Amino acid sequence: MDKQKKYLLSEKEIPTQWYNIQADMPNPMLPPLHPGTKQPVGPDDLAPLFPMELIKQEVSKDRWIDIPEEVRNVYKEWRSTPMVRAYGLEKLLDTPAKIYYKYEGVSPAGSHKPNTAVAQAYYNMKEGVKKITTETGAGQWGSALAYACQKFGIDLEVFMVKISYNQKPYRKLLMNTWGAQVFSSPTDLTDSGKKILAEDPNSPGSLGIAISEAVERAAKDPAAKYSLGSVLNHVLLHQSVIGLEALKQMEMAGDFPDIVIAPLGGGSNFAGLSFPFVHEKIKNGKNIRCMAVEPASCPKLTKGEFRYDFGDTVGLTPLIPMFTLGHTFVPAPIHAGGLRYHGASALVSQLLKDNLVEALAVQQLECFDAGVKFAKAEGILPAPEATHGIAAVIREANKAKEEGKSKTILFNLCGHGHFDMSSYQDYFDGKLQDHHFTDEELHSGLNNLNTPKI
Amino acid sequence: MDKQKKYLLSEKEIPTQWYNIQADMPNPMLPPLHPGTKQPVGPDDLAPLFPMELIKQEVSKDRWIDIPEEVRNVYKEWRSTPMVRAYGLEKLLDTPAKIYYKYEGVSPAGSHKPNTAVAQAYYNMKEGVKKITTETGAGQWGSALAYACQKFGIDLEVFMVKISYNQKPYRKLLMNTWGAQVFSSPTDLTDSGKKILAEDPNSPGSLGIAISEAVERAAKDPAAKYSLGSVLNHVLLHQSVIGLEALKQMEMAGDFPDIVIAPLGGGSNFAGLSFPFVHEKIKNGKNIRCMAVEPASCPKLTKGEFRYDFGDTVGLTPLIPMFTLGHTFVPAPIHAGGLRYHGASALVSQLLKDNLVEALAVQQLECFDAGVKFAKAEGILPAPEATHGIAAVIREANKAKEEGKSKTILFNLCGHGHFDMSSYQDYFDGKLQDHHFTDEELHSGLNNLNTPKI
User: Fold this and answer.
1) DSSP letter at A307?
2) From the CA of B373, how many Å to the nearest CA of chain A?
3) A48-92 pLDDT, tens per residue?
4) Which positions in chain B touch A174 (Cβ < 8 Å)?
5) pLDDT for B207 beyond 90
């Protein structure tokens, strides 16, 4: 029984270029619009917020973009990440399916987020930026950027969604350890925060609100830039290192996935693993299903509308062409904080519209049950966000069993749950429940939306 | 600057045998004694507590002992562990020393403990054992054994030191997730626990007390065995996989350590990394210093006495020839719960007596400071136990700088601190302090000891 469990690349084999799906989309994404003029935004509109190199990447059509050596040197601290054969889970499910997971939880921050955090901090450093502002939900992104900013000597301010700030004090502490300042959002440090607090002093916050605060803070400070952990094209670009490694690792395993699965909050986790496989689909006609899994309490891909919408709650960002529930939609307070976002990245949205990827919404109790099964079978305790992928994997593995068919499934185990133990505590204590929105509730954020339709 | 950061072995290169230092010691360790007869204990004395295969390993003089295939297959879930060049820490310290760390925190339980937990659970399973009892301090050992017992279908009861049970609820939850029952020790489930509670109802517990409880519980249940996470020879044997991998990885790096450093609680962490290097010292006359680092609040190696003593507080275990502060010594309530143990393994003690290894005691504030420096420089947040090794590394790296000498240092980063964040919180909040015992206090546990002197 000398079966290989893990597939790892040498440091020399870590990809030297990111993959840019904009080079290969049958229909390019529509341009983001300036919220005032409703005209496509140009580099000058974005310059107050982002360094020029990231703005270039945002609109680039080059298929391959070099990863700077300094970024690769930091990647080496944890990359390549292992691709692991889930023998334990296969046995537990008694399935003919072969299940592999790409484990991004080995990074110092414990998730896939440092892949882009390090790149973003690097480009900011190169252009002389001294301070970055950002938002974070469960804290995965904030801690990744704190780690990255520390590497390149940049100050960081994090606006952390209040409900997570209270639920996950240790993620805040981790950010502090790496030198970041963390605020519980909404704050009274910004006009956006004050506006929300005036309407509801007990607002639990949301990613959309925290984005408004971080964007406003950077826009008003000439020495500061803003950094976003998902949604934008350059973020998805940096995450492609996950799928590029997985392609090589699948080759080592002598296998190839029929289905690629990942959770979706803004889209970078899903895109990171799946876009290099979508490339195989477009380029070589490979028959692969790529499935984004979202929480049923925030189902923009399965229940939202494809139209222009703001990336934040207050309405400061450009208008993005995306699947959205409306920028004022407040998701149920589930524990997968990283997935509580009203919209999906423009790139993923366009691909979904073109049927190159698919989507599934799952309730949280099914996800926690899947997470505990995984911890028992494979040892690793997954982050609540990651359990969404596992729940979909279990559905597909059970389907394979019913159909009596072998099938190869690859999913992104995007992070560990070591800082999310309070969620598991609540789950074990029976305190969690599913949230069944009515269609009316789900469309409440879309009904009065006065942003352009597509 | 294309410098290699991590050294990893393929699954085929994971050691197939453990290294047993009993084959090579210039002076063999003295035999453990029966507490009643004061005669050397035989296999029959130990049979109520341990499966026969582990009893054989306890007294074996074979240099190499095969690692069963089933154990190697579980090892593959996280082994080999990386040996990492600490470029970041070297830079921070501006030292000419080359620093490497062996990172055991990648295991599912987050420490080196599963190396023996998996082996012990396996041998128990092979001999038909259905239930195991054990103790745990900070919870590293308990969670490792919970993970291992889950793998082999064995029930587990964990007696967790009360102070840690309260400080680290998430480690308890992790054990529960893997199916273990966890009790806050002292309990009223055992006579040992009742005795302690009668003397002090508010006893914070200690490893020694928890061992008494777990041993008593197993001894009274014919279907149960007991498992210990450190101190015993077979435990140190299983941990040798760490140093054996590190030897190969040092060869990959084209380097060899001048100093090997690891924290010491009972001794398995230190032995695991260092014994294969002590072997090089004995066999090939290599000039290597092997340094065990203990907390100043529990300094058995540097301030204790080499004599026979009990392994537990109540006095149920065989008498072990070891450096000890006396089995009734109560260490200060520092946060490195895994190091709060009155004695050191007999093998490490004998080697210390024979000057083949050395010891250093460090205060906890220096350790936490070292841990935060490491987290900033290398990304990984170390467990409080692991920071003891880092503090010693920093001292040696600073010495190298003063002396203007290059020097190669290898240390065991035995675990991450994700479940120890409350300790870091207390440290950042200024709530931690050093404990300066007087000599009188340190010898209080030895003064009335009526166990045999050596």
Assistant:
1) E
2) 9
3) 999 999 999 999 999 999 999 999 999 999 999 999 999 999 999
4) 381, 421
5) no
CA–CA distance, A50 with A70 (Å, rounded to integer): 19
**Among candidates A6, A78, A173 on the partner chain, residue whose Cβ is nearest the Cβ of B425:** A173
Mean pLDDT is lowest, of B37-46, B75-84, B329-338, B430-439, for: B329-338
Flag if A110 and B418 touch (Cβ within 8 Å). yes
CB within 8 Å: B381 and A177: yes
Q: Is it the case that residue B1 has pLDDT exceeding 70?
A: no
Dihedral in degrees, nearest 10, Cα atoms A377, A379, A384, A390: -40
**Residues within 8 A of B (CB atoms), A 87-126 only:** 106-110
Distance CA B270, CA B260 (A): 9
B430 near A CB under 8 A? no
Interface confidence (ipTM) of the complex: 0.93
The reply to whether residue B5 touches residue A421, judged by beta carbons under 8 angstroms, is no
Q: What is the DSSP string of A245-259?
A: HHHHHHHHHT---SE
pLDDT digits (tens, 9 = 90+) for B25-43: 999 999 999 999 999 999 9
Stated length of chain A: 454
One CATH from 3.40.1190.10, 2.30.30.100, 3.40.50.1100, 2.60.40.2890 for A69-110+234-438: 3.40.50.1100
Residue A367: helix, strand or coil by DSSP? Answer: helix
pLDDT in tens, A390-425: 999 999 999 999 999 999 999 999 999 999 898 999
Q: How far apart are CA A40 and CA A34, in angstroms?
A: 6
